[in-house]
Recover the amino acids of this structure.
C-alpha cells in the first residue's frame, strides 16, 4: 500500500511540474491547488495512518482543516466584499 | 526497586534532592513550580515596565522617557505580560500541577514533553530578553505591519523569534492536557464528573493547539518579509497589511480566552468550595467553556473595524462578538446562583473570586461597547480600550490566577499563609486596580489616545489618579510575594483539606507524594458533592 501511495505521489509531482508550464488562464490556481490537496490527502490518510485510526483521531485531523477553512473563509469574506460599497469618486 | 518505590511515596518537594533533580524532573508538579518561578520573574519584569509607563504619565509632558524609549517600554510591557506571563500563567502552573491529580492520574500523558515545554518557554523568553538588551522593540505587542516588517529599525526579528519559539511551549502543553484527559482518567471519572477547572483547561488547550500555530507562522512571515523582502504584508511590494491583522487576531483574540478561560475554571472551583454548595448548572458551565473557545475563534475582525476591512465583514464580526458574551454571562449567572443561600466562608480565596467577578463583569460589558461598530470608531486606540482589556486580562485573568494560587497554595507547598495578609492583599489589588484603570475608561472616552508619552494637560487629573492606583496595585502584588515566601519558611503545616473542599486533590496529603496517589483512586461520586463534603480542617469563619 505504502509503495502504491508513494508512486501516486511521484506521479502527482510530475503532473505538478508539467502543469506549471501550461497556461490554463483562470484555472491555473484551482488546478495547482487541486493537485496539492490530493497529494496532501494521500499523505494524511495513508502515510499518517488516519484512514485506519480511531474516530477521535479522525475528528482531530478534520477539525484542524475546519479551523483552516474558518481562517481562510472568513478572511476571504472581508476581501470579497470590500468593493461592494463602492469608493466615492472612483 | 523498593528504594525507587519509597521515593515515589515521599513528598514531591523532598525527594529527590538537588538542583539537577528539579531541572531534569518529569514530575508535573515540579514542572508547575518551575513555571511558577519563571512567570513570577516575568511578571516582575513586565510590572517594572508598567511602572515606567505610569511614572511617565504623571505629567502631561514627555519628560521622563523619550518618545522612542516610551514606545519600547510599552511594547515590552505587552510582549512580556502576554506571551511570558498571562498565557502560561494558569495552564502551565495550576493546570500542570492539578490536572493529573484532579482526574486521578499519576502524571501527564507525556512527562518528557511537559519538561520540554518549559525549556522551550525559557529559550523563547531568553531570545526575547536578548531583543530587550539589543535595543528593544518599538512596534507594540501587536507587531502591526508594514511598520514592523519594513520600517522599524529595532529588534523586531529577535522579539518575533522569541514569541515564535514560545508558541511551541504553549502547543505542547495544550496537546499534553488533551491526550491526558482522553486517556488517563481514573476509573469512574466520567466526563461529567470532571471538575469544571478541568473542563476549562480542556477548552483552553483546544484554543492553544488550534490558534498558536497561526500566530507562529504570522510572526515568521514578518521576519521573512524583513529579511527577504517577500511581498506579504507591505503594500509597496505587493502585500496587504490588513492580512497581517487578520492572521494575527485569528490567534490573538482567542488568546484572550487562553487567559480568561482557565481563570473561569478556577472561579468555578472556588465558588463551589467557598459556598459549600454544588455548582449550579454544571453542564451549562462546562459547555459554556467550549462555546467560548469555539465562538471566540469567529470574532477576531472586531479588532479591524477601523482598518480597511469590509463593512459587511465587520457587521458579521460585530454580531458574533455579541454572541460570545452569552456563554460568559451563563457562567457569571451560574456562579451567582451557586452562592445563593450557600454557606459562604470569608477566607482569602473568596476575596479574590469576588474581585474577579466584579472586574470581569466591567471588562466584559465594556467589551460589548467595543464590539459595536459605530461606538468602536470613537473608542479605537483610546485609553478606553486599554482599560477594557486590563479589566479582562488582569482583573479577570490575574485575579483568577491569584485566587487559585491562594486556594491551592497549601496543597502545592504544604504550608499555610497568613490569612489576614491574604485578605488585605486582595483588597489592595482590587481597589488599586480600579483606581488605576477606571479613570482610563473616562479619559479614553474623552479622547486620550493610547501609546503616547505626552498628552493634553486637561487629562492630567485622571492620569495622576491612575498612577496613584498603580502604586497601590504594586504594593498589593509585592505583599503577596512576601507573605507567600514567608509561609514557605515559617508558615504552619497545611492539613490535607484546609477548606473542606471536594475533589481528588483534597484527598491526598499536602504536599502530594511524587506519584500523587498510593493506590489508583476509584471515583464514585459526582463533582461538588458538598452535602457529603468533609468539614474544613481549619474552621469556617
Amino acid at each position: 500500500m505504502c509503495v502504491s501511495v508513494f508512486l501516486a505521489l511521484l506521479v502527482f509531482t510530475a503532473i505538478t511540474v508539467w502543469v506549471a508550464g501550461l497556461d490554463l488562464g483562470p484555472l491555473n490556481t484551482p488546478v495547482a491547488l487541486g493537485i496539492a490537496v490530493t497529494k496532501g490527502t494521500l499523505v494524511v490518510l495513508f502515510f499518517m495512518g488516519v484512514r485506519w485510526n480511531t474516530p477521535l483521531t479522525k475528528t482531530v485531523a478534520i477539525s484542524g482543516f475546519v479551523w483552516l477553512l474558518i481562517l481562510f473563509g472568513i478572511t476571504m469574506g472581508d476581501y470579497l466584499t470590500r468593493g461592494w460599497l463602492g469608493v466615492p469618486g472612483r | 526497586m523498593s528504594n525507587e518505590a519509597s521515593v515515589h511515596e515521599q513528598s514531591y518537594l523532598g525527594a529527590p534532592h538537588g538542583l539537577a533533580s528539579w531541572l531534569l524532573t518529569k514530575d508535573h508538579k515540579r514542572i508547575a513550580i518551575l513555571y511558577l518561578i519563571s512567570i513570577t520573574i516575568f511578571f516582575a519584569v513586565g510590572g517594572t515596565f508598567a511602572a515606567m509607563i505610569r511614572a511617565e504619565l504623571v505629567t502631561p509632558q514627555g519628560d521622563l522617557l523619550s518618545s522612542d524609549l516610551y514606545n519600547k517600554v510599552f511594547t515590552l510591557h505587552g510582549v512580556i505580560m502576554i506571551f511570558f506571563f498571562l498565557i502560561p500563567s494558569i495552564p502551565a502552573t495550576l493546570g500542570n500541577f492539578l490536572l493529573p491529580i484532579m482526574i486521578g492520574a499519576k502524571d501527564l500523558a507525556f512527562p518528557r514533553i511537559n519538561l520540554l515545554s518549559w525549556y522551550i518557554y525559557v529559550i523563547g523568553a531568553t531570545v526575547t530578553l536578548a531583543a530587550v538588551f539589543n535595543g528593544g522593540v518599538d512596534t507594540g505587542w501587536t507587531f502591526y505591519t508594514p511598520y514592523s516588517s519594513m520600517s522599524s529599525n529595532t529588534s523586531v526579528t529577535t522579539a518575533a523569534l522569541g514569541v515564535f519559539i514560545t508558541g511551541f511551549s504553549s502547543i505542547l502543553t495544550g496537546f499534553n492536557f488533551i491526550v491526558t484527559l482522553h486517556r488517563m482518567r481514573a476509573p469512574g471519572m466520567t466526563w461529567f464528573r470532571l471538575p469544571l477547572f478541568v473542563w476549562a483547561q480542556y477548552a483552553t488547550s483546544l484554543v492553544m493547539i488550534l490558534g498558536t500555530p497561526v500566530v507562529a507562522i504570522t510572526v515568521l512571515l514578518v521576519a521573512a518579509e524583513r529579511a527577504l523582502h517577500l511581498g506579504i504584508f507591505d503594500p509597496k511590494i505587493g502585500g496587504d497589511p490588513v492580512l497581517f491583522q487578520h492572521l494575527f487576531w485569528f490567534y490573538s483574540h482567542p488568546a484572550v480566552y487562553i487567559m480568561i478561560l482557565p481563570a473561569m475554571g478556577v472561579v468555578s472551583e472556588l465558588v463551589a468550595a467557598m459556598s459549600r454548595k454544588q455548582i449550579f448548572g454544571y453542564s451549562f458551565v462546562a459547555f459554556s467553556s467550549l462555546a467560548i473557545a469555539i465562538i471566540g475563534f469567529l470574532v477576531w475582525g472586531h479588532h479591524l473595524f477601523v482598518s480597511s476591512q469590509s463593512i459587511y465583514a465587520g457587521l458579521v464580526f460585530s454580531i458574533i462578538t455579541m454572541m460570545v458574551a452569552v456563554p460568559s454571562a451563563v457562567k457569571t449567572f451560574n456562579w451567582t446562583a451557586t452562592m445563593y443561600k450557600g454557606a459562604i466562608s470569608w477566607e482569602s480565596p473568596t476575596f479574590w473570586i469576588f474581585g474577579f467577578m466584579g472586574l470581569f463583569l466591567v471588562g466584559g460589558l465594556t467589551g460589548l461597547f467595543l464590539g459595536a461598530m459605530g461606538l468602536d470608531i470613537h473608542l479605537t486606540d483610546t485609553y478606553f480600550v486599554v482599560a477594557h482589556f486590563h479589566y479582562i486580562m488582569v482583573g479577570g485573568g490575574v485575579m483568577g490566577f491569584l485566587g487559585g494560587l491562594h486556594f491551592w497554595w497549601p496543597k502545592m507547598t504544604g504550608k499555610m499563609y497568613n490569612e489576614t495578609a491574604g485578605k488585605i492583599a486582595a483588597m489592595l489589588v482590587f481597589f488599586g486596580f480600579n483606581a488605576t484603570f477606571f479613570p482610563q475608561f473616562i479619559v479614553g472616552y474623552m479622547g486620550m489616545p493610547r501609546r503616547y508619552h505626552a498628552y493634553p494637560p486637561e487629562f492630567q487629573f485622571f492620569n495622576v489618579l491612575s498612577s496613584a492606583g498603580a502604586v497601590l496595585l504594586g504594593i498589593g502584588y509585592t505583599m503577596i510575594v512576601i507573605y507567600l515566601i514567608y509561609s514557605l519558611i515559617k508558615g504552619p503545616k497545611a492539613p490535607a483539606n484546609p477548606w473542606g473542599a471536594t475533589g481528588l486533590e483534597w484527598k491526598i496529603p499536602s504536599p502530594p507524594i511524587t506519584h500523587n496517589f498510593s493506590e489508583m483512586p476509584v471515583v464514585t461520586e459526582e463533582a461538588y458533592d458538598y452535602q457529603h463534603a468533609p468539614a474544613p480542617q481549619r474552621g469556617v469563619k
